[in-house]
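Students often ask why inverse folding is considered easier than folding. One informal answer: many sequences map to the same fold, so there is more than one right answer. In these notes we will look at a single instance of the problem. The structure comes first.
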């Protein structure tokens, strides 16, 4: 193309910065000299992105903080809409942060600007009526997972499944021996990774039960070792405080290194969340647990439409790994599920083969595939 291609991107989370940087690199190969502007993180800025605001101004979580920051967020969004309306890009791409980005996309699309949303909201699981706004807002949805694309196809929204960047990054055959060497774990040890979550509320509810589960498992097999990756310094302090009453457990808490810890383990007991995808890509047999306040659970359980909560089961469209929820989360129920992988090694091997098949399905060179879809949209303009 003779003219310089201009691409608007808005990213609100650190994970989106990783996706954005990968997409930028792929688009730069298609459009040398392309101009990228909007809001991006450190990786994107290092690649030449012009960020109008620090990306962390959008990184708000919970219920209260977004309300406190609402005037600022509305000002930023209004400025972005005005800027891209006055200076129309060849395409606008919102990466994740749907509550912020979909409104921008809707306003710009109404003016004839091509719009893309990268990373589907969990609309297939709950708040399904959002599909109406998504259809108004986007010319193209880029999904990381195949079942998400199926949902959009059923609702007539243009979609492209691009695969998951983590599936590109994590090797098909993780090196358990190297992971154990890095953590100082003997090659022949029987290891369980315990991952009660990255948020304080999750660790408060699940941590004590996980430590009791470890004790229960030890009573079945006294040769087990347990490793806990703490998501950050705050979680490490919280975990160590809980473990102060469990002096006899052969348990080690490490700073971060969740991928290394999972790769080193024979099985993983973990809170439901995106880390279940990471455990699957690392081919680790897992038990997934989740527990929340009874009122929140009673509300959310009525809203969620999905039959499963863990990504391995959602991707397989069947119960590959145990999901143990709410009142069923007890040391005995969790322990029995964890120990099955040791008592029935053939079951663990079957699971690892299924994980490998799914890994190959979502290992699609995501950034290149996303860039090709964006290019097709740009060049479809009349």
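Output (designed amino acids):
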């Amino acid at each position: 193309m003779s003219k310089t291609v201009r691409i608007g991107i808005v990213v609100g989370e650190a994970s989106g910065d990783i996706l954005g940087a990968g997409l930028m690199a792929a688009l730069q190969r298609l459009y040398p000299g392309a101009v990228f502007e909007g809001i991006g993180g450190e990786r994107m800025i290092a690649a030449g992105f012009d960020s109008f605001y620090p990306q962390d101004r959008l990184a708000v979580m919970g219920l209260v903080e977004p309300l406190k920051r609402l005037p600022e967020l509305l000002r930023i969004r209004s400025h972005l809409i005005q800027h891209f309306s006055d200076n129309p890009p060849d395409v606008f791409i919102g990466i994740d942060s749907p509550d912020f980005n979909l409104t921008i996309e809707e306003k710009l699309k109404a003016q004839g600007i091509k719009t893309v949303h990268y990373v589907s909201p969990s609309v297939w699981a709950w708040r399904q009526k959002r599909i109406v706004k998504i259809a108004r807002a986007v010319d193209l949805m880029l999904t990381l997972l195949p079942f998400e694309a199926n949902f959009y196809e059923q609702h007539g929204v243009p979609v492209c499944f691009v695969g998951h960047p983590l599936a590109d990054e994590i090797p098909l055959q993780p090196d358990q021996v190297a992971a154990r060497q890095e953590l100082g774990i003997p090659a022949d040890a029987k290891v369980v990774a315990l991952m009660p979550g990255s948020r304080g509320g999750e660790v408060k509810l699940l941590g004590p039960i996980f430590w009791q589960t470890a004790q229960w498992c030890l009573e079945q097999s006294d040769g087990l070792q347990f490793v806990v990756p703490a998501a950050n310094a705050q979680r490490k302090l919280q975990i160590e405080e809980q473990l102060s009453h469990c002096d006899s457990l052969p348990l080690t808490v490490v700073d971060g290194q969740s991928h290394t810890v999972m790769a080193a383990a024979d099985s993983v007991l973990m809170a439901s969340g995106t880390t279940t995808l990471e455990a699957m890509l690392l081919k680790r047999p897992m038990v997934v647990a989740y527990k929340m306040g009874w009122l929140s659970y009673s509300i959310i359980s009525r809203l969620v439409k999905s039959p499963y909560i863990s990504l391995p089961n959602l991707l397989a469209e069947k119960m590959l790994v145990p999901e143990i929820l709410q009142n069923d989360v007890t040391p005995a129920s969790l322990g029995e599920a964890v120990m099955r992988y040791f008592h029935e090694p053939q079951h663990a091997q079957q699971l690892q083969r299924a994980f490998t098949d799914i890994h190959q399905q979502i290992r699609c060179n995501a950034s290149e595939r996303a860039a090709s879809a964006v290019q097709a949209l740009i060049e479809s303009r009349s």
